[in-house]
Amino acid sequence: MLEKYRTIRTDGQVEIEIKKSRFICFAKRVSSEEEAREYIQAIKKEHWKANHNCSAYILGKKAEVLRSSDDGEPSGTAGVPMLEVLKNNQLVDVVVVVTRYFGGVKLGAGGLIRAYSSAVSTMLEEIGIVEATPQQEIFATVDYSLSGKLQHFLETNDYTIKETLFLENVTFCVLVKDAVSFEEQLIDLLHGNVELKEGNYGYVEQLVTRE
C-alpha cells in the first residue's frame, strides 16, 4: 500500500546574504544515497573556492535515511539545522547543499544556525512543496447521452479528470483515492449504465499552501 509523502516541487537554488557572507542553497529531488552524494560532490566541485559546502538529505517515503554534514563549520551549526528544516516540513527524497562564501564577519554559533536554516527555508518558499497522494486511475465509459451527467458529477465533486476520450462512447479517466466507493457512486448515479475499468495506481502531486 502506497503512502502519501511530501517533497520539493522542483529542483532549484536561491542565494541570501548575511553580514557580507553569501549563502547559496541548492535543492534537488533524489531517490538514492548514491544520487544524493553525487549531487553534493558536483556542487563541491563547482564551488571549490567556497569556504564551506554543507549538506543534508532525507531519503525514503518514511524518512528511513537522514544525513547531514557541517563541512568544516563548527559542529552542529550547519548540517543539522538544515536537516531540521527538512524534517519540520516533513520532506523526503530531497538533498540540499548550502554553499558559503565567507564575507569577513564571524556569525557565531547561533548566527550560523540561523543563517543555514534561513537559506533552506528561503529555498523552500521559492520552489514550493508538494504532497504526493496515492490514487487509482478509473476508466469510466458511458454513452454520449450520459456523458454530460457524468462530467457534471465529477466536476461538482472535485474529482480529477486526467483525460477524456471521445470515441464510439465517451471514456473519462478519473483519479480517485477510494476506487470501491467511487465505482459504487457511479453505478448508482447512472443506474448501472457505465463500464468501469481500473488503470494504474500511483502518486498525484498537489502544491502545499504554506501559511
Describe this protein with a few key phrases.
211 residues, alpha+beta, Ribosomal Protein S5, domain 2, Alpha-Beta Plaits, 39% strand, Impact_N, UPF0029_Impact_CS, Ribosomal_Su5_D2-typ_SF
Topology record:
Blueprint: E1 5-8, E2 12-18, E3 21-29, H1 33-46, E4 52-59, E5 65-69, H2 79-88, E6 94-101, H3 108-127, E7 129-142, H4 144-156, E8 160-166, E9 170-176, H5 179-189, E10 195-207
Helix pairs in contact: 2-3
Describe it for me?
The chain is of the alpha+beta class. The protein has two domains: 5-127, Impact, N-terminal domain (Ribosomal Protein S5, domain 2); 133-207, Alpha-Beta Plaits (2-Layer Sandwich). The chain is 32% helix and 39% strand. The protein is built from five helices and ten strands, in the order E-E-E-H-E-E-H-E-H-E-H-E-E-H-E. The protein has helices at residues 33-46, 79-88, 108-127, 144-156, 179-189; strands at 5-8, 12-18, 21-29, 52-59, 65-69, 94-101, 129-142, 160-166, 170-176, 195-207. The strands form two sheets. Strands 1, 7, 8, 9 and 10 form a five-stranded antiparallel β-sheet that branches. Helix 2 crosses helix 3. It is elongated. The mean pLDDT is 94.
